[in-house]
Amino acid sequence: MRYYKKLTGKKVYLSPMNVEDAEVYVKWLNDFDVTDGLGNSNRVVSLEDEREWISQNSGQNQFAIVRLEDDKLIGNCGIHGLDQSKQCAEVGLFIGDEENRNKGYGQDVLNLLLNYGFNYLNLNNIMLKVFSFNEAAINCYKKVGFREIGRRRKSYYLRGKFYDDVYMDILREEYHQFDK
Prior knowledge:
Blueprint lengths: L6 E2 L3 E5 L5 H8 L2 H7 L8 H11 L4 E6 L4 E12 L4 E8 L9 H15 L5 E7 L3 H10 L2 E12 L2 E11 H7 L2
Parallel strand pairs: 5-6
Antiparallel strand pairs: 1-2, 2-3, 3-4, 4-5, 6-8, 7-8
Helix pairs in contact: 1-3, 4-5
């Protein structure tokens, strides 16, 4: 597969998505270990649906996450909910295979997305949502400079239990203070 280094970090780079990767994404998006953290475990994703989604969204600040050391696709990320008049947006990401989690890739991805959002898209506030059970992700977000700004209590039901939606954000000025 051919990837293009749109944004390059220390461990990963972000590339435009390839429709040829749809099978890999479908495998991940039908894996409860991935989708429980995304909040869409109740969905069944087909190959055709994923190909169509990639075709429609590949130019919309959605990126493949590719490992620098071997050009291997390891996840997906993006900036969505972009409101230029308010200079706000949201970010999201996932790392597909368990073997690639807890290795600092997520932190690298977030730094790339924040740099792109603040310095190229002229954003002032970038937000994300995470579920309260996902402590590893919350810790990752804090390391990059995100702060909790609120919760929607008991709003996500998963496997017999309710969890909070945790909202976090970072401002441009905070990012530049935190900038590595």
